[in-house]
Write a structure and sequence with these properties.
By secondary structure, this protein is α+β, with helices and mostly antiparallel strands. It has eleven helices and ten strands. The model is unreliable at 312-325 and 327-331 (pLDDT under 50).
């Protein structure tokens, strides 16, 4: 039986010294119901969130999140244009622990409701760029994972090989993925600080801007494309393009293949869904994944815009070169 918000409030007072709770309400749960949670208001007007994990996986996630929050020092946070929660306290309960965090203000925005004209897509792109611009040294200092491009490539190949072994992935997709992993130019990138598990639900927003970022349990140094692939699922025609453009402008990055790798990761998420279904022996999940894979073939086949191979620099016409030189001379 789930604990009531009043029980969670009592736990919070044991976890945070001096906390005097004036009111408490239930506060949703994780995407898979992995946490019991309550929103608390102190008599001083401050707001808090208390969460109690309901599974071993959630408990491990919470522990990793705490390590990441400790690594995000005051100096690191000062570089970010949004808020990150702080650890308030913890107390043991039923073989696990209740953890209290400072509440970060803002509303969650479903992916299908992000619009380009309200500025949120641009703000998301800039927020992700800010994370990727953080110095990588604090990740290693905190003992968090640091992955090289070779290790990241091998991880993708492993997913492909396991999916291929099911004999349920269309040959056209396997060939497409193999060409991407064999394209050395695609994997010549500088690893950055990455959140590692971003989705639309990770962001809090207000008035068309990002106010906070949640869930830091996979913080590491890795491929920046891992934080961008979920944008490709946006329903708005130009949402992903706006976010990617703002991201590139904010970073000034020379990684021209980041979108291609993001596309590959998005497609491999379906392969992971297939593998999950086979592991769980769920016909429903497997059938769903297979249908998605065949739908993907229809989407990307013969569409040059959906290519996973690396981009080459566009070739400028003679008159374009002359115009560029003329502008430089006048500058």
């Amino acid at each position: 039986m789930a604990r009531s918000h009043l029980t969670l409030a009592a736990l919070a007072t044991a976890a945070v010294a001096g906390l005097d709770v004036a009111s408490a309400t239930n506060f949703g749960s994780g995407a898979h119901g992995d946490f019991e949670a309550a929103l608390l208001t102190g008599r001083d007007g401050r707001h808090w969130i208390i969460r109690v994990p309901t599974s071993e996986r959630a408990e491990a996630e919470q522990s990793a999140d705490l390590v990441a929050l400790r690594a995000l020092s005051t100096g690191v946070r000062a570089r970010l244009p949004f808020s990150v929660t702080n650890f308030g306290g913890q107390t043991p309960i039923g073989g696990t622990r209740a953890v209290v965090y400072e509440f970060v203000y803002g509303s969650k925005v479903p992916l299908d409701s992000i619009e380009t004209d309200d500025g949120l897509a641009d703000s998301i792109g800039r927020a992700i760029a800010a994370v990727h611009s953080l110095p990588t040294s604090f990740i290693a200092d905190a003992g968090l994972p640091v992955y090289t491009p070779v290790e990241i490539l091998r991880s993708s190949v492993t997913v492909m090989d396991r999916a291929a072994a099911t004999h349920l992935v269309p040959a056209a997709l396997l060939g497409r993925w193999e060409r991407a992993t064999e394209d050395s130019a695609l994997w010549q990138f500088a690893p950055t600080v990455v959140n590692g598990s971003l989705s639309a639900e990770s962001f809090l927003s207000s008035d068309g801007g990002v106010t906070g970022l949640l869930d830091w349990h996979t913080l590491s140094v890795g491929d920046p494309a891992r934080d961008l692939y979920w944008l490709l699922g946006a329903h708005g025609e130009n949402v992903a393009e706006a976010a990617f453009d703002s991201y590139a402008l904010a970073r000034g990055s020379s990684d021209r293949q980041v979108k291609q790798r993001a596309m590959l990761y998005a497609e491999l998420e379906i392969a992971k869904w297939l593998l999950h279904g086979t592991q769980q022996r769920s016909t429903e999940i497997v059938d769903d994944a297979v249908a998605m894979l065949h739908g993907l073939v229809d989407t990307v086949q013969n569409d040059l815009e959906q290519s996973l191979t690396h981009n080459t620099m566009p070739v400028m016409a003679v008159d374009e070169v002359e115009a560029m030189l003329d502008r430089n001379q006048r500058a």
